[in-house]
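Hello,

Our lab assistant flagged a job as stuck in the queue for most of the afternoon. It eventually completed. Since we weren't sure the result was trustworthy after the delay, we are filing this so someone can double-check. Below is the sequence as submitted and the structure that was eventually returned. Let us know if re-running is recommended.
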Amino acid sequence: MAEPSGSNTADDAPQLSSGETLSTTGRFSLTARILLVNMLPLLLLGGGLFYLDSYRTQLINERFKLARIEAQITAEALAGASRERQEALLVQIGKEQGMRLRMFDAEGRLWADSFELDEPSFTFDDISDDTWDQRFARWLDRTVDTIVAAEPVTDYVPREAKTADAWPELVRAREQGVSQVTLYDWADGTPVITAAAPVGLNGATLLTVRNAVDITATVRAARTTLVTAVLLILFASAMLSLYLARTIVTPLRELATAAVKVRQGRERGVEVPRLPDRSDEIGLLARAVSDMTAALRHRIDAVDSFAADVAHEIKNPLASLRSAIESLPKVNDEETRRELEMIAIHDVRRIDRLVTEISDASRIDSEMSRATRERIDMAELVRSIIGSREHRAENQDHRIELKTHGPPPVVLGVGARLERVIENLLDNAVSFSPPEAPIEVLVENDGACVSVTVCDSGPGIPEESREKVFHRFHSVRPEQEDFGNHSGLGLAIARAIAEAHDGSLVAEARSDGAQGACIRLRLPAA
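-- returned structure --
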């Protein structure tokens, strides 16, 4: 039946797999994985630094309490004891606790020093002969203190003065009558804790000095463990990053190679990897490139086929026109000359019609992509077209019966293009229907789709040929119709317009069992 056409349907075009969108689901995306791998060591290091600073502060606070308690207990033990006993206690406690103890009398004069009474229980480290690892440890301490914004600590300066006024904590203890604890920092970065406490009620005072090297050792050991863990994680992170890089670079290199081959015109021999096992961005890209390549092949095939069809269709009228023009000078009979002239005019019109239809078919995609869609009542559009055709006497002797069913059949589309589809369907039905046979047009809206069905009373379309009628230049016209009055592109253009509106155009048998054929246009309801 109808004037068919021949572009391949959009259903043949490659699509992304069901449910696949431009976002990934089901697994961590590459971005999240890369960020996690690279941020984990930094998070561990940062968290560890703040934890160690808190741990160090906690140790010092505990040592503060201990220093205060030790000073108070020692002061109570010294109170009321004889001088010999006091000196013995200073030496004994100093050795056992690793401290230096000094006693001052009521006038603030030094009269007993555990380091002078016996061998010193500890010595401050001389940093001038430190090894490189000790210097590095001090540098690392200062760096960590800067990072965590630790409060500065006063440097400890050894005092050999014989009066209590040289120690601020002793001055406060004498004035306030309660024990005082102070934190200092030795040159090697170890904390120095001093505690001053009143001894008895006679105004004497006690000063204890402890170099808490164990705190620094504990913190540095923990820091060493942390740095070791961070280095191990950095190594693991580097390995994982290399693995991730391979999982990214290798498929990207394969895709790039395939893209270059396609650009070089070897797309027929190129198999673009689809990576079906990957649901991340790389897998999505691979499938998108594969589908794009398939669509490109489909488009190239369509263009090649279209060009071949156009050349074939134009060649026939050109050959006829050439034959008529070449014969004119050789013919003297006026009647024959008029016939040749009519043939030439007919062929020129046929070529003009072909060029117009071909140009129209080639512009559909680009025009539809730029056109602004509007709400269109298909029933009103069909009614208007039928009235215009009757006014122009294009329906011949046929009566066109319009029926509607369902809610208002409103769609979103380009009015001029949808009008072209309806005109083609009515032209087709008029061509194939017997004289004075009615043509039925049914417009329906089922809520999801709007359909326009045009049924004629012609010979119908065999089931095996119902798709061929939409192929380009496939035209089986009625015998009574003049040859060349149709290009064979009408239904092809109509289907292209329908698919550009996300719809479809198919040929069917009449539902009432009568002779004839129906062509149904389906569009999404607005």
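-- support follow-up --
The delay was a queue issue, not a problem with the job. The result is valid. The two ends are 32 Å apart (CA to CA). The chain has two domains: 5-9+297-524, 30-224.
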